[in-house]
Amino acid sequence: xxxxxxxxxxxxxxxxxxxxxxxxxxxxxxxxxxxxxxxxxxxxxxxxxxxxxxxxxxxxxxxxxxxxxxxxxxxxxxxxxxxxxxxxxxxxxxxxxxxxxxxxxxxxxxxxxxxxxxxxxxxxxxxxxxxxxxxxxxxxxxxxxxxxxxxxxxxxxxxxxxxxxxxxxxxxxxxxxxxxxxxxxxxxxxxxxxxxxxxxxxxxxxxxxxxxxxxxxxxxxxxxxxxxxxxxxxxxxxxxxxxxxxxxxxxxxxxxxxxxxxxxxxxxxxxxxxxxxxxxxxxxxxxxxxxxxxxxxxxxxxxxxxxxxxxxxxxxxxxxxxxxxxxxxxxxxxxxxxxxxxxxxxxxxxxxxxxxxxxxxxxxxxxxxxxxxxxxxxxxxxxxxxxxxxxxxxxxxxxxxxxxxxxxxxxxxxxxxxxxxxxxxxxxxxxxxxxxxxxxxxxxxxxxxxxxxxxxxxxxxxxxxxxxxxxxxxxxxxxx
Length: 480
Prior knowledge:
Layout: H1 12-26, H2 38-45, H3 49-62, E1 65-68, E2 72-75, H4 90-95, H5 104-114, E3 121-122, H6 143-148, E4 152-153, E5 156-157, H7 158-172, E6 181-184, H8 187-197, E7 204-209, H9 218-222, E8 225-232, E9 235-236, H10 238-248, E10 250-255, H11 269-282, E11 286-289, H12 306-309, E12 314-319, H13 321-324, E13 331-334, H14 337-349, H15 356-366, H16 371-394, E14 399-401, E15 409-414, H17 421-430, E16 432-433, E17 435-436, E18 446-450, H18 459-478
Parallel strand pairs: 3-16, 7-8, 7-10, 10-11, 11-12
Antiparallel strand pairs: 1-2, 4-5, 6-13, 8-9, 12-13, 14-15, 15-18, 17-18
Helix pairs in contact: 1-3, 2-3, 7-15, 8-14, 17-18
InterPro entries: Aminotransferase_I/II_large, HTH_trans_reg/aminotransferase, PyrdxlP-dep_Trfase, PyrdxlP-dep_Trfase_major, PyrdxlP-dep_Trfase_small, Tscrpt_reg_HTH_GntR, WH-like_DNA-bd_sf, WH_DNA-bd_sf
Family: In the C-terminal section; belongs to the class-I pyridoxal-phosphate-dependent aminotransferase family.
GO molecular function, one term: transaminase activity
């Protein structure tokens, strides 16, 4: 009777639950009947006793069995009569939920961020601190003003699209026509729509390794296979990418060529042209994530978007969230008109309506007479903080680090190889909250620091915590 059939891909404790439930429902186990002891069940099933205990705990929680001290585990008599009622196994559905699978290390970091009474330094959060976000004065607006706004169609608020078009022309010297722009609720909505409309489950996508895309659950939820392509200081390695294209029938290449998240690297112009040429050869579209475009520390002439080099083959994602704050939730996608129309139609069918409120405020910011000066001031402050953090890291022999040309991330590599689990725990113990490299890759030797969150006041705290972490990790390595 107690023979367990183990199915591939199904946790053993779930198989035990289903087996016992089937015996109860068929009447092989009667109300009030005692189950074998945990030890005996573990022997019958050839599993650890803890696995049996886990399964029995779940059955107790569901009300199918009862544990009585001195009497063992018995079938709940109160369940008799409803035992044959079909029950949906919600647990199995939830186990397939890609959005629920949060890394334990992430949970610990986010828990510490929420605790206002600790001395942790948050260099993990991917946002500007409030003191750096530019402030804009808006004219008095009434609720009726929003209701009467009629210049929004399926692609978004037309004046905002015009403003984005003008800004791109001024910054890079090429035009993104308003008709080619789809306003989205942040860059991730643009990415989500692309996954839903242009790709299908089972398709293969090439990304940089490491890449922030690796950490997004939307790919797993959509059934998209991600293949990481190694990088060097010039950007994604084209030989490796071409090999990947041939081996895995890559359908799209997704890159973050300027101030890449998490490494901060900027793809060279030669590499950009080579990437364009390679993807044209195989007729593969490129998705360019350029959300840090406004935070460049070098001339825009040195950082030409892939979209400018190949307007027809490149899908271009931009955003204001990195400079106006994440609550702004304004992004855009520049794509061929036919593509944007399909994406807009899909969004409408999914009822992902786009609020006029943030679009109108974003347009007011972009058309502010002082917008350019405020962005210049922001870039100056961000670069200054970046240089300060870089100097701290660069003076330490244990870390390999380069100053980025824009954005707000610095990538520091531990020179002595991979960091172990207990090493990562040291960061939490010292309250230095950074993003570990295993969030973005299989590598375990680097950290991502949001240097914009290190101001003059907490700079000494950052130094002290980094020195303490470095000494503890180095000491632990030397004792092996």
